[in-house]
Amino acid sequence: MLRLTVTPNLRDLIIFNQLNLMHELPMRGPFDVIFCRNVVIYFDKETQRDLFRRFARLQRPGDVLFLGHSESMFKVSDAYTLVGRTIYRRNES
Q1: Which residues does 83 contact at the CB level (< 8 Å), separation at least 6?
Q2: What distances in angstroms separate CA 54 from CA 3, 32, 85, one per listed residue?
Q3: Distances from the Cα of 49 to the Cα of 19, 54, 85, angstroms
């Protein structure tokens, strides 16, 4: 297992909290990158659409969303374009 240590200045900027993706997101953004790996496969398509809509509101065009290898936005959201195997870039609004 890879173990990293960060400087106290960086560590103080990091916040870990539980987040229920079924509820409104408490963050305001914008976020350059969102990592949501191996979660949305458990949601139905309508819930996925809603979640990706909420993610898109937190990002600017060009920002990046990472999904898991078994996840896809095919026929779910047009807010993002696939740019890598699991990497999506936020489209212009």
Answers
A1: 64, 89
A2: 32, 15, 22
A3: 18, 9, 20
* pLDDT score of 66 more than 80: yes
Q: Distance between CA 8 and CA 33 in Å, rounded?
A: 22
Contact 77, 53 (CB under 8 A): yes
pLDDT digits (tens, 9 = 90+) for 4-59: 888 999 989 888 788 999 999 998 999 999 999 999 999 999 999 999 999 999 99
Q: Using CB atoms within 10 Å of the CB of residue 14, give its burial: 0 to 12 exposed, 13 to 18 middle, 19+ buried.
A: exposed
- How many C-alpha atoms does 48 have within 13 Å on its Cβ side? 20
pTM for the predicted model, two decimal places: 0.84
Q: Can you read off the two tokens belonging to residue 48?
A: 């996925």
Q: Which two tokens stand for residue 79?
A: 């807010």
For residue 73, count other CB atoms closer than 10 A to its CB: 18
